[in-house]
Amino acid sequence: MSKTPQIVRTITALREVTSRWRADGEASALVPTMGALHAGHLSLVDEVHKHAKRSVASIFVNPRQFAEHEDLGTYPRDEDGDVAMLGERGTDLVFIPPVEEMYPPDFSTAVEVGDVTEGLCSASRPHFFGGVATVVAKLLIQAQCDYAIFGEKDFQQLLVIRRMARDLDIPTKILGAPIIREDDGLAMSSRNQYLDDQQRQMAPHLYATLCTVADAIRVAGEVEKALGDGTSVLATAGFDVDYLELRDAVTLEPITTAPQTPARLFAGAYLGKTRLIDNMAV
């Protein structure tokens, strides 16, 4: 259902629209993004339409989740292309705030979530989840939608956001959506376009290795050996491995023996300067 979405750039204009939907009894859903959209993002838009009549997507490259050495300045941006793709998927409203709208000069509040932020991505990016929790809390409060959706590729992030919304009594229901992959298994990500041709050919080995490690854990239950073998395979293939870990799928507690509860296998690794993450249920 293609349409031309309305674009707003201020919180006041955003709330004017979403409050009108609410007054009309129309459920709404938020799809937060940083732009540079791909099929994975668009699958989130498709999914929220199963839950709500109205949809709003945000496009905001959040500076608070980037460290000084990271790619804030070069992060891919394509506002016109993003809006066109969102319109093709039937998005009603696109919120594209400037940085000063989200973070005025005297902004001095930060949201920090404990427990589920420990380890994995936060080990090498300790600033990341504080920046994510802060901006998502703002977006949920600003939009006041009934639902918001996040992809399971960033599974730790999904759990952080759910914990934050629960702890702060934000009534928006947080939905998760499955990972969307390329034909060769690579998890879709806006950062994939940083990969050169050789790295792009190598990148699917991350997913393939996860599959092998997960199968080994399911069959033999030897977690430490499977993780060690997987790390060696990735390093030999040219990845700079950040982590390869098995965690509880709810608490994110590390698992070192054959799992007795739902578990998740997580990987983070660099190819050149490009950081790739992936995960799967075990």
Explain what you see.
By secondary structure, the chain is α/β, with parallel strands linked by helices. The chain has two domains: 6-177, Rossmann fold (3-Layer(aba) Sandwich); 190-277, 2-Layer Sandwich (Pantoate--beta-alanine Ligase, Chain: A,domain 2), CATH 3.30.1300. It contains ten helices and nine strands. The protein has helices spanning 11-23, 39-48, 79-88, 99-102, 121-124, 128-143, 155-167, 197-202, 205-220, 223-237; strands spanning 6-8, 28-33, 54-59, 93-95, 147-151, 173-177, 240-248, 263-271, 274-281. Strand 3 (54-59), helix 3 and strand 4 form a beta-alpha-beta unit.
Briefly, what is this?
This protein has helices spanning 11-23, 39-48, 79-88, 99-102, 121-124, 128-143, 155-167, 197-202, 205-220, 223-237, and strands spanning 6-8, 28-33, 54-59, 93-95, 147-151, 173-177, 240-248, 263-271, 274-281. It has 282 residues and is an alpha/beta fold.
How is the topology of this model organized?
Layout: E1 6-8, H1 11-23, E2 28-33, H2 39-48, E3 54-59, H3 79-88, E4 93-95, H4 99-102, H5 121-124, H6 128-143, E5 147-151, H7 155-167, E6 173-177, H8 197-202, H9 205-220, H10 223-237, E7 240-248, E8 263-271, E9 274-281
Parallel strand pairs: 1-4, 2-3, 2-5, 3-4, 5-6
Antiparallel strand pairs: 7-8, 8-9
Helix pairs in contact: 6-7, 9-10
